[in-house]
Amino acid sequence: MLDEAAAEQVADVMFALSTPSRVQILACLTQGRRSVGELVDELGLEQSSVSHQLRVLREHELVRVERVGRQRMYTLADTEVNTLLECAVRRISGTGETGHGRGRSSGHAVG
């Protein structure tokens, strides 16, 4: 059983994964490091939105940032983030639903 502190930490991670654009960003980062501009191009999101979502993901320690020249490059914080995404995708695969009756189909795999 989880104690209260551990449950709070798990809830924080789940909060960070509660927005589809953050999940999409993490999925892109499973393929390797990306700049904000690359994520904008790949996902078709606004730069300000990508930057905001990356800030949330950094605050929850799901991504890391490093400077390469004048650019900031983002990567997954560790392999456990990829494992977490894979588990979530497996959870919904085969059902065609998100698991809470909304009837949305995934259609995307991680990695």
Give a quick precis of the structure.
With 111 residues, the chain is an alpha+beta fold. It is built from five helices and three strands; from the N terminus they run H-H-E-H-H-E-E-H. The protein has a three-stranded antiparallel sheet with strand order 1-3-2.
How would you characterize this protein structure?
The chain is of the alpha+beta class and 111 residues long. Helix content is 52%, strand content 13%. The protein contains 5 helices and 3 strands; from the N terminus they run H-H-E-H-H-E-E-H. Strands 1-3-2 form a 3-stranded antiparallel sheet. The chain is globular and about 45 Å long.
In terms of topology, how is this protein built?
Elements lengths: L3 H13 L3 H10 L4 E2 H8 L3 H13 L3 E6 L2 E6 L2 H14 L19
Antiparallel strand pairs: 1-3, 2-3
Quaternary state reads single chain
Strand order of the largest sheet: 1-3-2
Strand percentage: 5-15%
Tell me the series of helices and strands, N- to C-terminal.
Answer: HHEHHEEH
The class by helix and strand makeup works out as: alpha+beta
Instruction: Kindly provide the radius of gyration, computed on alpha-carbon positions and rounded to a whole number of angstroms.
Output: 15 Å
Task: Give the key terms.
Arc Repressor Mutant, subunit A, three-stranded antiparallel β-sheet, 111 residues, alpha+beta
